[in-house]
Design goal:
flat, four-stranded antiparallel beta sheet, about 425 residues
């Protein structure tokens, strides 16, 4: 280290005045608000289009505009009270939630660039290392406050979103977007202090978990894709019943397109539920339990996609064998885990890492499934999502497959 470098570390650079610091925080909060309202503006387009093209609609223009903020609340796992019967609806469309995270990431990245450009030139480190969280907190706060405002704005129409219930989801989405932006902005001075803290927290995570994370993500992604394929196959095989329900609804034109789009946006939710079903646990769709041995009877709402649910009675003959699918995915996770370990690693290390990777993969899928669960506050449709038994079965099956493949590959390599 040269004398000049030591001098730069010892001698502080010019500090920011309080007025400029508040300006930076306001800029970050403003970009958080921009991210929130950007999604709301995107949602305005289909709501207004459906109102304009529906000749039989009795809603006013204010009702049509209020649908967008109400849907924004649902996307962030908020609660919206339906008109007339005072039933609270929870229906997060995870595809739109992922879009909200992408918008938050773009706005957070723009906020970091804007704040960095507006900061005065400095020769040293001007960032207050103890206040590294100020800018991210301002961004998240601006996003969450905008969510509350959007929930109140929806009261112009017939729906009544709870403004408090939208705060947790708003905070999570904004934090994910800001964290993603920080990880992609390692060269920005404004991100340096936060990244140091993030790296410090990462180092505290057990090594076995860090080694297992990437194989777990691959395994979870594979299982979600298989769940989506299972759901789409069920829809294709039951297309006559699905189209019959759509015909009975009597929707066409723009309304039909919006109904189809809404069902497609719920595909990540259904993919996670289907992946949980592959473990051997049932999936609850209100009064109907879709199990492996049997499907219970019950009346369901007139949603075309529900036509893919098999008729009440005994389950398919191949259903008892579907838990082998998570075990097979666990085998893949175990093979990927060993690729991140040296061949000289002990069997105990390999088995432990593979087991953690398999359990993590199952936990990720189940987290998506339960975060994407839906329901009404009253009545038979109070819960739509995987059965709690999946919490035990899915991680266990993935871990068993991962441990088996890791053990087999270890002995195959050592005996070559």
């Amino acid at each position: 280290m040269t004398l000049l470098e030591r001098t730069r570390q010892i001698v502080p650079g010019p500090s920011l005045d309080p007025q400029h610091r508040w300006q930076r925080l306001l800029v970050a909060a403003g970009f958080g608000a921009v991210a929130a309202f950007a999604l709301a503006l995107i949602l305005v387009v289909p709501s207004v289009a459906g109102w304009v093209t529906d000749a039989q609609s009795t809603a006013t223009w204010s009702d049509a505009l209020s649908f967008a903020p109400a849907l924004w609340v649902l996307v962030h796992r908020g609660s919206v009270t339906a008109p007339g019967d005072a039933v609270a609806v929870t229906a997060p469309l995870l595809a739109l939630t992922a879009g909200a995270v992408l918008l938050a990431r773009s706005a957070a990245r723009a906020a970091l660039v804007r704040v960095d450009e507006s900061a005065p030139s400095r020769s040293g480190d001007v960032d207050d290392r103890d206040a590294w969280w100020h800018l991210p907190a301002a961004f998240v706060g601006g996003y969450a406050l905008s969510g509350v405002l959007l929930a109140l704005l929806a009261w112009v129409g017939p729906t009544r979103p709870n403004p408090l219930y939208v705060i947790p989801g708003s905070v999570v989405v904004a934090a994910l977007g800001m964290g993603w932006a920080l990880l992609r902005s390692r060269e920005d001075p404004e991100a340096a202090a936060a990244l140091e803290v993030i790296d410090g927290l990462t180092e505290r995570v057990p090594l076995v978990v860090r080694r297992a994370l990437r194989p777990a993500l691959v395994g979870a992604g594979t299982l979600l894709v298989l769940g989506a394929l299972l759901a789409l196959t069920a829809v294709a095989l039951s297309w006559s019943r699905v189209s019959q329900i759509g015909g009975e609804l009597g929707v066409g034109g723009t309304a039909g397109v919006l109904l189809t789009l809404g069902q497609l946006l719920a595909l990540p939710n259904v993919a996670a539920w289907s992946a949980a079903w592959l473990s051997g646990a049932s999936v609850t769709v209100g009064p109907v339990s879709v199990g492996h041995a049997a499907i219970s009877p019950g009346l369901l709402p007139m949603v075309p996609a529900f036509g893919a649910i098999p008729e009440a009675g005994a389950g398919p003959a191949w259903a008892p064998f579907v838990p082998l699918v998570p075990v097979a995915v666990g085998v893949l996770v175990g093979l990927l885990t060993l690729r991140r370990l040296t061949s000289l690693a002990s069997l105990q290390v390999k088995v432990r890492t593979a087991a953690v990777a398999g359990a993590l993969a199952g936990g990720i899928v189940l987290a998506v499934g339960y975060l994407g669960s839906m329901g009404l506050s009253e009545g038979a449709m109070s819960y739509v999502g995987p059965h709690p038994l999946a919490l035990v079965l899915l991680p266990l099956e993935l871990a068993v497959g991962a441990v088996a493949s890791a053990t087999a590959l270890h002995y195959w390599r050592t005996r070559r």
